[in-house]
Design goal:
alpha+beta, 9 helices, 2 domains, Lipocalin, about 30% strand, Serine Threonine Protein Phosphatase 5, Tetratricopeptide repeat, about 300 residues
């Protein structure tokens, strides 16, 4: 008799679990169709305060949010967060909380949740600039500061001062042999990858081309440049540092005789419309120096 009772309890538990899963599946289907009220009722029929399903809690909260039940939405979002959701779910939940707080005029709380969501991978800039839910935030006196914090969370290089040491080279340039009016080429230097790097696009008057990517390596505290030209021969320039009014690199290469040589590679920040690019090679263990080239960049007029 005891065995039959135990077996019966197991069957009943399995049946209850299957029914619960079927209800959650129905709730998720209604959620996907944005039938918020019906989805909510199905979630409520299976979720209890002891439930540890963070995805269902955040979906229940989003149902309440779309039904205008903001206090209930926040309660359910907190239950989601209390159940240690994975980062993606946590990020989405925090972003939804930010929208609720913004809708209810609690701008500081909204900004806090939005920045936390962004730190977990939620790219909130388009939403922050366009969603109606953030209308109150955009009207707030401190909106510029909030947006700056969000931007710098999405694009951390924007907040790294040394990542902008080379910004003086950004622009579109005509390039001349220094001290002459002899045009040697044109260059377009762009800020890319969320302000983490500069991309150089070089075209000479002799039809050769090349590109370089320049970036601040936070691990070493130095700038680096990787160059590849149409003639081949990739070259790396390391230990870049902005000092004495110039971005200065050191480099090493092996000459045709198989001997290692070193050189200097410098970009002088003359003024906002003028940059001088200079490269040399040390010979005889540094006793003599050969100038590889000496160019002056003149910013094109807009």
């Amino acid at each position: 008799m005891k065995k039959i009772t135990v077996l019966l309890l197991i069957v009943m538990n399995v049946s209850a679990f299957a029914q619960q899963q079927a209800t959650l599946k129905k709730a998720d289907s209604l959620f996907a169709k944005q039938e918020w009220k019906a989805a909510k009722q199905n979630y409520l029929s299976v979720l209890k305060d002891t439930s540890s399903n963070p995805i269902s809690w955040t979906r229940l909260g989003y149902c309440d949010q779309n039904l205008g039940l903001y206090a209930e939405a926040l309660t359910n979002y907190e239950k989601c967060l209390a159940n240690s959701p994975r980062p993606q779910v946590r990020s989405v939940t925090l972003s939804r909380m930010a929208r609720v707080y913004a809708l209810t005029g609690k701008i500081d709380e909204a900004a806090d949740r939005l920045i936390k969501a962004t730190a977990l991978g939620y790219n909130s800039l388009p939403d922050l600039d366009t969603l109606a839910d953030y209308k109150n935030m955009r009207a707030a006196p401190n909106f510029a500061d909030i947006r700056k914090k969000v931007y710098e969370t999405v694009f951390p290089c924007a907040a790294e001062p040394h990542a902008h040491d080379f910004d003086f080279w950004i622009g579109e340039w005509d390039v001349y042999q220094t001290g002459t009016k002899f045009l040697v080429g044109h260059s377009l230097v762009q800020s890319i990858s969320g302000e983490c790097a500069l991309l150089e696009n070089w075209t000479s008057t002799q039809a050769s081309t090349g590109k370089s990517i320049n970036y601040y390596n936070a691990a070493t505290g130095k700038w680096e440049q990787d160059w590849i030209g149409s003639a081949g021969g990739p070259q790396r320039y390391l230990n870049g540092e902005y000092k004495d009014g110039a971005m200065q690199f050191a480099y090493e290469f092996t000459n045709a005789q198989g001997k290692k040589q070193t050189g200097n590679f410098k970009f002088y920040n003359i003024d906002k419309d003028t940059v001088r690019q200079y490269q040399d090679i040390n010979n005889d263990d540094g006793k003599t120096v050969t100038v590889s080239y000496d160019f002056t960049y003149i910013r094109k007029k807009q």
